[in-house]
Amino acid sequence: MYLFLAFLLVPIVEIALFIQVGGLIGLWPTLAIVVLTAVLGTVLVRTQGRLALANLQRSFAELDDPTEPLAHGAMILLSGVLLLTPGFFTDAIGFALLVPGIRVAVFRYLKSRMTITQFQMGTGAQFRSDSAPFDDGDIIDGEFSEVRPKKDPAQPSKWVEGPLQH
């Protein structure tokens, strides 16, 4: 229902704003503002997007929770779409989503409305079923023996050759 209202009301608001602004400053200045906001928005989205990608890569490298960097990246992507859409209302929302403080507020609001049932990072080998941390004092004793190939290592193996020809 909300999506239907958005698709219905946003174009109506945009048309009303185009009529009002166009009546105040004229057709060509109105079109110039629309093109200028699209170009400026593209530049800002690219720089903010690079920062968001760097934050996401850092969270993966440090094995931190990537939820917030992913949400910021999604909001920056949405702001880019809104800024490229002609209109004053969508431009205002798009520029607002480029402000980090507003993105943090939106993220906190969305996070408060969601329930996370499970979150786990890393491979399964790092975690035990009883959720006990690793004890670095565990030592596993074992024996090994070196196995040498029976063939001469100078001869190539057959598995790298092409298919058999009959």
Give a written overview of the molecule.
The protein starts with a helix and ends in a 54-residue tail after the last helix. The mean pLDDT is 83. By secondary structure, the protein is mostly helical. The chain has a domain at 10-113. Helix 3 packs antiparallel against helix 4 and helix 3 (67-84) packs across helix 5. Helix content is 60%, strand content 0%.
List the helices and strands and how they pair.
Layout: H1 2-25, H2 27-61, H3 67-84, H4 88-97, H5 100-112
Helix pairs in contact: 1-2, 2-3, 2-4, 3-4, 3-5
Amount of helix: 55-70%
Give me the count of strands: 0
Structural class: mainly alpha
Q: What does the radius of gyration come to? A: 28 Å
Strand and helix order? HHHHH
What percentage of amino acids are in beta strands? Answer: under 5%
Mean pLDDT score: 83
Low-confidence stretches: none
Q: Please report the distance between the alpha carbons of the first and last residues.
A: 67 Å
Main β-sheet description:
none
Number of helices: 5
Concise overview:
This protein is mainly alpha-helical and 166 residues long. It has helices spanning 2-25, 27-61, 67-84, 88-97, 100-112. 60% of the residues lie in helices and 0% in strands.
